[in-house]
Amino acid sequence: MKKLCFLIPDGTLKPTTLFGVIEVFEKANIYATENGKEPFYEIILAGVQAKQIFHNSMLSIITDSIQSIKAPDLIFIPPIEEIAAKPVGETQVLLEWMVDQYHSGTEIASLCTGAFLLAYTGLLKDKDCATHWRAESLFIKMFPDTKLLVDKIMTDKKGIYTAGGASSSLNLALYIVEKHHGRDTALFCAKLLEIDIERNSQSQFILFEGQKNHADDGIREIQEFIEKNVEEKLSVDFLAEKFSISRRSLVRRFKKATNNPPIEYIQRVKIEVAKRCLESGKKTINEIMYAVGYNDVKAFREVFKKIAGLTPIEYRAKYSSYEMEDNM
């Protein structure tokens, strides 16, 4: 039986994600017992005693002390609200304990914004990781020595797992169940909880918000120009000439300020506008393509899928209430 330790740090938790992931492993235990086996997992809550307001009442979580947990197989860090606050007190003790456990062979998984606490341990240095897409800019600013893959819903590297948003945490749990006990067990859990087991990207859920929280006023002016001229065929050379800046300096400053090269930023702005049109408008995909400055169907489709994770027709079918006849 594998011992799963769900860490409860000090502060405000996001309990729905925490309990949702726990339920996946509980369903794996049901699959085991229904097939004449011992339960696969022992589930433990450890760390700080938690009390918080939840659905107009008080939610209390009674935890075991970390000192009583002997050799857990896997530690989970749940999502937290205070993602910018450096851990202190009891939470810092928990992080030091996690580092010791990891070096003794325990695996560690972060769920959603739990990646911030995991990054504070130093264990994510130079490793791929995922967190919620909306926390991308803050995470990169706080932990530049990590390799944040914002489009991924999960990562698995040298005993460190990370998951993107809340539902991505369920996919990570299914992934771990399959890794431990096979596809049949994971499918049982997925069907029982109605989880899309094949989902592997959070690109389609990302709302591109412009990344203007930086100190470079000149780059912010260029960003605003891009966003106001989405129908134009913009290039890096054109922007450099218009704003009287060398191409090399523009690329360097733009990447430093926004974490995106300018050409990628231009693409993301255009695709964000296209996504909004697909969700709420009655234009055909060809009309939308021209409206965001593309005239090559193949190029538009490829860029859209790279950024949104779906083709335009797939995106419209999934997120729009309008029925249109398109062939992209």
- Rg, alpha carbons: 23 Å
Strand content: 5-15%
Q: How many domain regions?
A: 2
User: CA-to-CA gap between the ends?
Assistant: 49 Å
CATH superfamily of the largest domain: Class I glutamine amidotransferase (GATase) domain
Secondary-structure element order, N to C: EHEEEEHEHEHEEEHHHHHHHHH
Per CATH, the class of the largest domain reads Alpha Beta
Question: CATH architecture of the largest domain, please?
Answer: 3-Layer(aba) Sandwich
Shape category: globular
Overview of this structure, please?
By secondary structure, the chain is an alpha/beta fold. The chain folds into 2 domains: 201 residues, Rossmann fold; 103 residues, Homeodomain-like (Arc Repressor Mutant, subunit A), CATH 1.10.10. The protein is built from 13 helices and 10 strands. A 6-stranded mixed β-sheet has the order 2-1-5-6-10-9, sandwiched between helices. Helix 1 links the parallel strand 1 and strand 2. The radius of gyration is 23 Å and the shape is globular.
Task: Give the SSE map.
Elements: E1 2-8, H1 15-34, E2 41-47, E3 50-54, E4 57-61, E5 74-77, H2 89-103, E6 107-110, H3 114-120, E7 128-129, H4 136-142, E8 147-148, E9 154-157, E10 160-163, H5 166-181, H6 183-193, H7 217-228, H8 236-242, H9 247-258, H10 262-280, H11 285-291, H12 297-308, H13 312-319
Parallel strand pairs: 1-2, 1-5, 5-6, 6-10, 7-8
Antiparallel strand pairs: 3-4, 9-10
Helix pairs in contact: 1-5, 1-6, 5-6, 10-12
GO molecular function: DNA-binding transcription factor activity; sequence-specific DNA binding
Keywords: DNA-binding, Transcription, Transcription regulation
Domain HTH araC/xylS-type: 220-318
